[in-house]
Structure formats: C-alpha cells, structure tokens
Amino acid sequence: MRILFITILIFVLGCKTDSKKELRIYNWANYIGESTIKDFESEFGYKVTYDNFSSNEELLAKLQAGASGYDVIVPSDYMVDIMREENLLAPLDKAKIPNFKNISEEYLNKPFDPESKFCAPYHWGTVGLGINTEHVKEEVTSWSILWDPKYKGKISILDDPRSGFIPALTLAGHSINSTDKGQIDHAKREMLKQKELVFAYTSDQYIDMLGAGDIWIAQGYSGDILQAKKENPSIELILPKEGSEIALDLLCVPLKAPNKDGAFEFINYILRAEVAASIANEIRYATPNKAAKDFLDENLVNDKNAYPDDLSSLTFLTDIGEAQEIYDTAWLEVKGG
Amino acid sequence: MKKIVQGWYILFLLIPILLVVFCSFLTKGSPIDFSFSLEGYKRTLHYGFPFLRSLGYATVVSFLCLLIGFPTAVVIVSSKKWRAMLLFLVILPFWTNFLVRIYGWKIILRQLDLLGTPWAVIIGLTYIYLPFMILPLYSSLERFDSRIYFAARDLGASGLQSIIKVVLPCISPGVRVGLLFVFILTFGDFVVNDLLGGAKNAMIGSSIRDAYLLSRNWPLGASLTVVSTLLLLCVFWIGRKWRSSGT
Amino acid sequence: MAKLWYIKLIGYFALLFLYLPIAVVIVMSFNSGRREWEGFSLIWYQRLASNTMLADALINSLKVGLISTVFSTILGVIVAYYLIRTRVSKFFKMLVSLPLYIPDIVLGLSSLSLFVLISFPLSIWSITLAHITFCSAFVALVVSSKLALLDKKVELAAKDLGATDRQTIIGVVLPQLKGAIIAAALLSFTLSFDDYVVASFTGGPGSTTLPVRIYSLVKFGVTPEINALSTILFIAAISIALIVARVDSKAFTR
C-alpha cells in the first residue's frame, strides 16, 4: 500500500512546468514529418503538444465539446465548410504568415473557404488503387478490377459510406455526390456482389496488409499507398480513369485557441518551401505549395498518379444533406446489416 | 457516506447516460437538433443483423471463456504457494497493451490462414477477455471447500458430473460475474472485429461508433446504445430466471 | 485432486495461450526488420529512447492508472459493503452496476457529454474521473462476490464482543477480503491502463494516453518501437512484482 502511494506521489510531482511557449496541435496520424515538430520546437523555442485524431467527425466532436484547447487543427475541405458555418474558426492573420504566398492559386478561394480567410492548404490527396505489381501483372486503369474474381480474398475497400461507393458510382457514370436513391442502390448492389472478394473493409490497415501480402489490391488514399511503396517498390498507385475523390486538408486555427500567434508562426513555418517539401517527401501526399516543388523528390513529382496533370475527373466530396442516410443504410447492408 | 457514493454515480454515470437517452429522441443535426423525433429508433430497426451477430459472438466467447477459464482458476487455486504469482501472471499480459497483443495475434493468425474470418474474431475475443472470467472464478474458488467435491466423488459421481452439479453451483457468484463481464465486453467490441475480422460482418459496437464518428448521427448512435443496453439487461434477466429455476 | 490432471492440463495450456502473442511481440522487438526475421538487433530500443511522444503517453497512462485505481478500489469496496451487508434501494443496486451493462463507447460518449455540459476541461482529470466511475463497478462486483461468500457469524461474534461497526469492518471483514481487494485493484489498474475508447473520447490536449497514442501509430502495422516499449513494460512489471514479493513477503503469501 505504501509503495503505491509513493509511486503516485512521484508521478504527480513529476509534472514538469515549462517556461517555454506552448503550442497544441491536433492533426491526423502520420501526417507530418518525423522531425518537423522537433525542428520547429528548437528553432522557435516552443514546447509542442501533438495529438492525433482519426476522423474529421472526431475533430469536430472535440471542438464542439468547447473545451479542447488546441491552437492548430487540420480539418478536411468539407469539415472546414461545416466549421465555418458553426463559427468555430478564427481568421488567419495573413500579416503574420508571409509564406502564404507560396501556395498555388488553384487551391485558394475554394467554396468551402472563400477568400481563403480561415485556412491554409496543407496537403491534398486522392482515393485510388494500391496495386501489388508482383502479383497483379496486368495493367490496371479501372475500378473494375475490384470485381475481378481472380483476386478473391486479396482486396480491401475503404470502410466509409461515401468513399466505399466511389468505384461503383463512377463505373456507372454517376457522380460521387449523387443524391439519387436509384443510383445509390445500384452501387450498393454492385458492392454486395463484390463482397465475397473482399479481405477487409478498412480505412487505415490496408498499408500494413499490402506490405504483409494479405492483399494485392487496396482502395486507399494516395499518400498512404505511396508510403507503402517506399517500403515495397512493387506497389503502385493508380488513379482509375472513371474518376475519384480529391480531398484537401487545411491548417486552421480554432476560434478559442489559447495561443493564436503561436499558431500563425507554426503555419508560416509549415508553408516554408523546404519544410513543405520535406513533409511531402515523407508522407507522400501532394503539396499545394508551389515553392516546394523545387525541393520535392523527383520520383514523386514525375509520378503522374501522385501529381496528376489532369484534375478534371477528380471531385471534392460535398455535404449531401438528407441523402447521407441513404448512403449509411446502403453501406450498413453491404457490411452485413 | 452512502449518499456521497450514490451522488458520485448519479453525477458521473446516471446523468451522462440520461443525456444519451435524451439524445436518442432528438433529431440529427450539428451536432444535434433539439427537436423531438423517433427517427433514431426507426433506423435502429435496420440493425437486426449486427445485434444478432454481437449476441452470437458474446454467447460463443462466454462459453469458451468458461470452458478454458475454469481449469485455469483451478490451477491457480490448487497451488497455495504460487497462487498470487499465478494471478499476477494472468493479468500481466494486459500491461503490454491491447492493440499490441492483437497485432501479435495478427501475425500468428496470418500464418494459420485464419485472418479475416469469424474464427479470428472468436479467438481474439476469447483471448482478450479470458482473464475477466478467470479472476472472478478464482475469487469464488478460493473460498470453496474442496471436501465437497471429494464427497461427491465418494458418493459415486464422476469427475465431470461432480464439477457441473456440485462445484459450479457452489461458486455460482463467481461464474455469474465472469459470464457477465465476458458477455458484455464481447457484445460491445468493435476493435477486434475490425483488426482481425476485416470488419466484414458488422457488430453493433462498430455501428454505434460509426453512427457517432462517421455519419455524425448522434440520435441514431444514442438509440442503438439504448437498445443495446436494454437487450443486455433482458439477457441477464432471462439468465437469472433460468438459474433460479434450476436450483 | 489427482483425477483432475486433465483439467489442470487445460489450465496450464491456457496460461501459455495467454502469452502467445506476447512472445511474438517480444521476439519481433529484437528483429532488425519489420516483418520477416532479418536478424537480431536492438535498433528499435535505441529509437524508442528518443521517442518522447511514447514516453509522455506512458507517463499519462501511469498517472491516470494509479490515481484511478486507488480511488476506484476504495469506492468499489465501499459499494460492495453496502450491497452485501446493508439494505440498499433497488435504485442504488441498479446505479452501481450500470457501468457493467454499458459498452465502453457509450461510457466514453456519455462522459464526454457530461463534461461538455458542465464545461469541465478535457484533460488527464476528465479521463481519470471517467475511469474511476467504471472501474469501481468492476471492483464492487469482484469484491461483493467474495463478500457474499464470507461467514457472517464471525462479524456477529465480533459485534457481540463489543466491536463497533467500524471496528468490525476494519478488523474482521477487510482482512478476509484482502485477496479479493488486491485482485480487484489489479483489475482496475489494468482496465484503466489498457483503455482506449474512453480515454480517446474524454481526453484533451496533452492528455494522450498510451493506448490512444499507439492506436494512431499502428496505421502502418505496429512500428517496432512499440514492440520494444511493450517488451520493456512487460519486463518492468515482472521486476516490480518480484521486488515487491521479496521486500514485502506478506503481500504475496496470503
């Protein structure tokens, strides 16, 4: 008993009090360079608290809990839209972020953030196919490979009502933002047909599965697949010709952030050409930072699937209001409801 | 003192849960729309299969845990000298973190070609919740007078008969607690199903998580929760009736 | 129990079964590669040493674990005593066993709703409060199931001899419950230390506990540093147990 109390005492007393400036960042997991935070800390004299969330909804829930206390957050495009409407974001003080000019114009002034008042684009990515070319010898250009019985038990699909239906919707020529029940039901039937070929429905484990050989074909996010490629060069990223989703993640500052100036300083640091490039080289997602292009890994820049020239077949997912329920019900059925 | 204790649970347990129940009768919004609606419960009707699946897994895993846990508790109780050390050994694995152990199983199950199948989920769940059966069983067995067992044997019963008809009833508080723990914990699981079973056959736990964190449909999540809780209470009420009619 | 050898055999195998994935984790922590065996190496231990995120998470988990264990054990024992030895309303009975019927997602979510309602900041303390609440229910259950099997006559005898209720509890009941209390306390710490769901919902900036941190890192398969950390924790736990056993022999021979 005594030992227990002593141990508690030691840990409670062990709470360090730091005189350095503090910054709290809330980001996706594996979405920053390994040494980025440490480098920032030593250059600017901060003590950074770095936490991770795994979905935009989780981020929103914590923010709406009102008591979250983060200075920098990284929501996706549609979530920025929602947060703006809910008045959860603080406008960026562009005077404190001179490196903002490094961002390529095509990623600014988007509908979800008019005048780019609240957020600085961080990275963008697409949903594509991760193919293990050692086992899949044919050339892959279409989502239809997900229905090929040759690969039974070697396929993974994103575990998400919107992203999971992208292959079926685009193959039928429908929009990934469709609100038509008939089209969604058709997609559902297609996915049910395909279910027996699936090894797993997952939005994050496919990287491990590709590496371990559990699967040969994964529906996944571009950056993740390219990271898997670093470990295993026979893995390729393919952007199917029928089209897919594009998503942009942005650096924002919550309205109630305790250290807004620190947040601006951090964002400015991330937008530095070399820093942006080093992050992009590590996490393999595309960077909207035009100044960074000079410092990017050549293999990455030249990969037409990583940095496609033609973005026309790529669409942002938008809020579909009531129709979300149709997707949810359909997806439930696919997963065994 | 009693009032303080009661107060704690009211504040930190009852009120939160009432908030959830309250939420189940509201409308989906951002995060919630304070207008009455039964939409959440209507949608819950679609979730028949996940509920059944969770109940099924819970039953199978509870049974397996009892089957494996009872002998283990016997082993621990039998050795006066090493008892505490063995108890500690039962709990020790937990200190290496749930996810890490599941990933350890991923490696093993991959070799056995069982990954992504329901068997993987059953093995994983049994493994994770086994200690929750062993500890209460041990706690009851500790006080059990083994002479009762030998008396039964002397009177002609076989080893198995003696255990089922004499030992288990005597330690029934422990058995009940063990079954309770394992059943409920398994019922609400989603992580093992996601990691070892490929998330292919939805359990109600993942449906609840998805409702809150994916579809942002809090009333749906709340109704699923309320229905799950009622379902569990029913199961235990039935279990209690069945047991008392047996003696 | 000579004829029970086959029962005991299952028991011994079960104990081994409990350590199967742990053995895999420990072995992999010394693997210089990430999947196939590529040779013995301590590289992941070196990388671990400079990983402050994991270290901070571990400290958070230990803080939450120790504090919540102390309080949930006390609370749980008190509840167990009320349940078995005194008259309590049905309401009370239902209330204290509620955490057992609720999936952890709901416990996490409902706790989060409460903290939002009363504007309690999310931090180590919000996690601890939530943990105390549900862990104490488990403690209560384990201790009460043992308490129910105790012979009341000993307590009555003590009271006959003039002991007050308090003296009876401290001098007669608690010593008999020692084993169950220790088991319950261990269980409580384990539940807290290993909890992912509740901690992820009720946590705030800087309160990331180990399971939450690990969850976000395992995207690419367990980074071997985690295997190294797990191995170290494992060895540390065994060492502590051995030291306690040596120093305070009474704690382990009961």
Identify the notable features of this structure and list them briefly.
heterotrimer; A: 337 residues; alpha/beta; D-Maltodextrin-Binding Protein, domain 2; 2 domains; eight-stranded mixed β-sheet; three-stranded parallel β-sheet; 11 strands; 19% strand; B: 247 residues; MetI-like fold; globular
Estimate the mean pLDDT confidence of chain A: 89
What average pLDDT do the residues of chain C reach?
A: 85
Helix content of chain C: over 70%
CATH topology of chain C, what is it called? Answer: MetI-like fold
How can the largest sheet of chain A be summarized?
8 strands, mixed
- Low-confidence region ranges of chain A: 14-18
Give the termini distance of chain A in whole angstroms: 50 Å
Percent in helix of chain A: 25-40%
Low-confidence stretches of chain C: none
CATH superfamily membership of the largest domain in chain A? Periplasmic binding protein-like II
The name of the CATH architecture of the largest domain in chain A is 3-Layer(aba) Sandwich
Helix/strand layout:
The complex is a heterotrimer of chains A (337), B (247) and C (254).
Chain A: H1 2-13, E1 21-28, H2 36-44, E2 46-53, H3 56-64, E3 72-73, H4 77-85, E4 89-90, E5 119-132, E6 155-157, H5 161-164, H6 166-171, H7 181-194, E7 198-201, H8 206-212, E8 217-221, H9 222-231, E9 235-238, E10 244-254, H10 260-270, H11 273-283, H12 298-302, E11 314-315, H13 324-334
Helix pairs in contact in A: 7-13, 8-9
Chain B: H1 2-24, E1 27-28, E2 32-33, H2 39-44, H3 48-78, H4 83-91, H5 98-111, H6 118-141, H7 146-154, H8 159-170, H9 172-187, H10 191-197, H11 204-213, H12 218-246
Antiparallel strand pairs in B: 1-2
Chain C: H1 5-29, H2 43-49, H3 52-85, H4 90-101, H5 104-117, H6 124-147, H7 152-160, H8 165-193, H9 197-202, H10 210-217, H11 224-247, H12 249-252
Walkthrough of the structure:
- The complex is a heterotrimer of chains A (337), B (247) and C (254).
- Chain A is of the alpha/beta class.
- Chain A is built from 13 helices and eleven strands.
- Chain A has two domains: 16-124 and 248-302, 3-Layer(aba) Sandwich (D-Maltodextrin-Binding Protein, domain 2), CATH 3.40.190.10; 125-245 and 311-334, Periplasmic binding protein-like II (D-Maltodextrin-Binding Protein, domain 2, 3-Layer(aba) Sandwich).
- In chain A, helix 7 packs parallel to helix 13 (324-334) and helix 8 (206-212) packs parallel to helix 9.
- The N and C termini of chain A lie far apart (50 Å).
- In chain B, strand 1 (27-28) and strand 2 form a beta hairpin.
- Chain B contains twelve helices and two strands; from the N terminus they run αββααααααααααα.
- Chain C has 254 residues and is mainly alpha-helical.
- Chain C has one domain (2-252): MetI-like (MetI-like fold).
- Chain C is built from twelve helices and no strands.
- The longest helix of chain C is centred in the N-terminal third of the chain and has 34 residues, at 52-85.
- Chain C is globular and about 70 Å long.
